Amino acid sequence: MKLFFLTTGKELALFLLASAKNLYLCDKTHDMSWKKKYRCEQCGYETDVYEGRGLFRQHITAVSCPECKTIQQLVVGGIIADVAPSFGSEVGRLCLNCGSDKIQLWDMHTCPKCRGTMSFTGEKEFWT
Fold it and tell me: How many CB atoms are located within 10 Å of the residue 19 CB?
């Protein structure tokens, strides 16, 4: 895997990623990715949700685990899936906290701790 960083001016940064199978061109000017903070209105539980794609074309999916009552972030796709096919989707993945196979996609609203309502706090930052 090779990473090439190209700049074509102050406003534009291009990343050229080359793996054995694929070539990716990432324009970070138009491909903004955000990490957003969510908080439960009832119990205060917090989690980060990742939107967009990272530098290596991966996305991060929030899943809820009913056994340990947490929200976990699973890296899916991108270059890592080229060498580890199990990272190509959420199917068959386990909770990163407790190892449960009962994880499900998080609905972006329900608190896993108290079943209250979680909402976006307004806090966000760029991630790659």
Answer: 15
- Global pTM? 0.72
Each residue of 58-71: pLDDT tens digit?
999 999 999 999 99
**Where are any strands of DSSP class E within the chain?**
2-7, 13-18, 23-27, 34-40, 46-51, 59-65, 70-76, 104-105, 118-126
CA angle 119, 123, 128 (to 5 degrees): 110
DSSP 72-93: EEEEESSHHHHH-GGGGSSTT-
Pull the structure tokens for residue 58. 């991966």
